[in-house]
Amino acid sequence: xxxxxxxxxxxxxxxxxxxxxxxxxxxxxxxxxxxxxxxxxxxxxxxxxxxxxxxxxxxxxxxxxxxxxxxxxxxxxxxxxxxxxxxxxxxxxxxxxxxxxxxxxxxxxxxxxxxxxxxxxxxxxxxxxxxxxxxxxxxxxxxxxxxxxxxxxxxxxxxxxxxxxxxxxxxxxxxxxxxxxxxxxxxxxxxxxxxxxxxxxxxxxxxxxxxxxxxxxxxxxxxxxxxxxxxxxxxxxxxxxxxxxxxxxxxxxxxxxxxxxxxxxxxxxxxxxxxxxxxxxxxxxxxxxxxxxxxxxxxxxxxxxxxxxxxxxxxxxxxxxxxxx
Length: 325
Description:
Blueprint: E1 2-4, H1 16-20, H2 24-38, H3 45-60, H4 68-77, E2 87-90, H5 98-105, E3 110-114, H6 116-134, E4 143-147, H7 153-162, E5 166-170, E6 175-176, E7 184-189, E8 192-197, H8 199-207, E9 211-219, E10 222-227, H9 239-251, H10 255-258, H11 264-270, E11 284-289, E12 292-297, E13 302-305, H12 308-319
Parallel strand pairs: 1-13, 2-5, 2-9, 3-4, 3-5
Antiparallel strand pairs: 6-8, 7-8, 9-10, 11-12, 12-13
Helix pairs in contact: 2-3, 2-11, 4-5, 5-6, 7-8
């Protein structure tokens, strides 16, 4: 967050409610709402407050929880599949961990591409989900993990496809900004330019394997599965087009669903400074940094420091809205 500090008096002892405005959950919520506002997906102050409440509720949920009701909904929504291996192009949005479990129940053997740090955090969860579904431990012939930052992962993924594994790749695992270098594709999402690794497109081209993008979200306790038809990558010249086609699925999401995407704060950090752009009236929301009261402008992403008394006044007005848990 771009910040402007003024000469401020020493901070008082904040209440627990006030201290909540200094949590990572609150920071991530402000950044996410700011991105949606810049994408013109928030149409009124009431809309903004409603989405902010939804974001808080989503972040408060237990990650990677097992939910058999949602899983059953997802499996029943899945289109019929032939036995050909596919590259499943996924995103870190909604209950995305259910995708692998659903495919396992549907009889697919899986190779999942994960960074090593993500594997340390989530690898056991995938194994536990297999055991929940089948009552036994998985063997490598059914479920394998390929480290994205070890050796040459594309060669290992190619071998897995040739052995009949379906491959799961989280396309948004590496988002960057700026000028594309070798192996990167520039894509557009609403008004934001992003850089994505072309690995999924290259893998599809080398192996002749179809890519199928999909996104899973939840609305009012119901699964919403968005899944496209298979498509193939015929040449290296089509890599950028393929990556844009994958990300186009995100363009179809409502703001309520986009709030379930883990990457919104990353996009906020990578967006160009909008200070010289006319984005409409400022919308100031309170937060804390190291005990200092601040205001954050949703429209521009700019933050300003304020005095303790001014922060108390802003906090009381904001609490009446009912956003703070």
